[in-house]
Amino acid sequence: MSIAPDVVSAAAPPAAVPPVVPAAAEPAPAAAAPAPQVHVPLFTGSGKEYFRIWMINLLLTLATLGLYSAWAKVRRLQYFDRNTQLAGACFDFRGDPKAVLRGRILAFVLLVAYQYAFGFSLQVGVAVMAFVMLAMPYLLRGALRFRLSNTQYRGLWLGFGGGVGAAYLAYLPPLAVFLLPTVLLALYPEQPALAGAPFLLLLAWPLMHGRARNYQQRHLLFGDQHSRYELSAWRFYRPYLIAGLSLFGAVIAIGMAAAFGIALLEKKSLGAAAATFLPMALGIVIAYISYLMAGPYMQARIGNLAWSNTSFPGVRIRSTLPAKGFMLLQTKNAVLTLLTLGLYRPFAVVAVHRFRLRHLQVEFDEGFEQAMARAAQGRRNAAGDGASDALGIDLSW
Questions:
Q1: In angstroms, rounded to a whole number, what is the distance separating the alpha carbons of residues 181 and 194?
Q2: What 8-state DSSP symbol labels residue 98?
Q3: For residue 296, what is the DSSP state?
């Protein structure tokens, strides 16, 4: 007799039930990193306010035969710093006007010595040129330290930590380009071509400019934070080449237009008038284009390169100054300053300062307050730790 399958299954021992194991808790998603905070500096002053300061400074400077110019400079820096606002706080400048005055006296003495040294004797001239070359890098470094070490923001002092040796490496080559021709011409007056040899170094001028700017940007200080600068000096060649080629092309085009215009005027028997006024007009046009290329264009391009590659720990700077817009603004300023016999100058200065700030951004990775707290960890307690350099002067150059 067969056994029913259901009986067999009933008599069999129950199958073991596997223990219930609680599922492992899934890891919580990582918190998203906070978005960087971006702040754009704001200028709260106005051309009318600065016009009053500028006019008083001008009158007092004239009345004191230039002595008040040092106090005028401090008032100007204080006005612009105290009206430049970043994240709701303003900058401040606490420089000593007497230091500025000492710097201006020294600058005047060096300028006079440079102009007239060889009039006394060849030996005096060479000695003065050697002194100027040896002194200038140290004085330029001292001027940077004076300006930054007397600037304050949110209770923290700015500063400049570049060494003396690095200052000589950065500033001696460009100084040699301008001072060596004078020395060579005095030593070898019968070989004037020799005096022009140092100007061949102008081919390396963009590299010299880049190394000098590298020295300036790499050693900035804010509280306890040191700046970083990530830009090769060779990158300065591009804006110089663009400016040079643009100027060369403009001169060629103006020359061709002038030749065509003179030929046309000669056909109409107006050659004498053309010979008198056309060169003058062309000279003005070429001078204006040269000013645009060497001034506003280069300031915009070089400034953008330098500041956009400058950063502090957790803080990045972005400069997007448009070259075309800056050139148009400076053209307007130049025209209005000429038409008003100089009275538009303070309005032009304010317009340029506001335009620059409008195209500058400061980006904080961890937030503004965190960056300020980090910079305050090793804050310096007194201003002007570098203002004692160079006998505590501001070279004003």
A1: 8
A2: H
A3: I
